[in-house]
Specification:
By secondary structure, the protein is α+β, with helices and mostly antiparallel strands. The protein contains 2 helices and 6 strands. Helices cover 21% and strands 37% of the residues. The radius of gyration is 18 Å and the shape is globular.
């Protein structure tokens, strides 16, 4: 197994992951387990260095992982599938697209909630 390259969030809030329905990334994150594509932005002082390290890892066919604290300050990891740098007046922002694992139990619960929230099942309530 090859050693992954890590992007580690040491301080600051938990990254704000947003759904990212970019169809072009669909083939990148397909695999043996279900996953969704998510997007987050992180401020960084060393954006070019991070970008160079990740490009080198991908050239060597090594995974890149984002290591970050969750809301309970527990360490979590997700695979990075794409990245880009953006300059803003405050400095550099690292734009990351990640492979977000999908929990099958959560999917089933969401489907049930959607059904229970007003879908007409064809039965009359007396």
């Amino acid at each position: 197994m090859t050693e992954p390259e890590y992007i580690t969030v040491l301080e600051g809030p938990t990254p704000d992951f947003q759904p990212a329905p970019h169809l072009m990334l669909q083939s990148v994150y397909e695999g043996p387990t279900d996953a969704a594509n998510a997007f987050c932005e992180l401020r960084t002082a060393r954006g070019e260095d991070i970008l160079d390290r990740c490009r080198q890892a991908w050239r060597e066919a090594r995974p890149v992982r984002l290591d970050f604290p969750d809301d309970l300050r527990m360490r979590q990891e997700v695979d990075v599938v794409a990245m880009r740098l953006r300059q803003v007046p405050e400095g550099t922002v690292l734009m990351l697209w990640v492979r977000w694992p999908v929990d099958e139990d959560d999917e089933d619960d969401e489907e049930l909630e959607e059904f229970d929230e007003g879908e007409d099942d064809g039965f009359l309530d007396f």
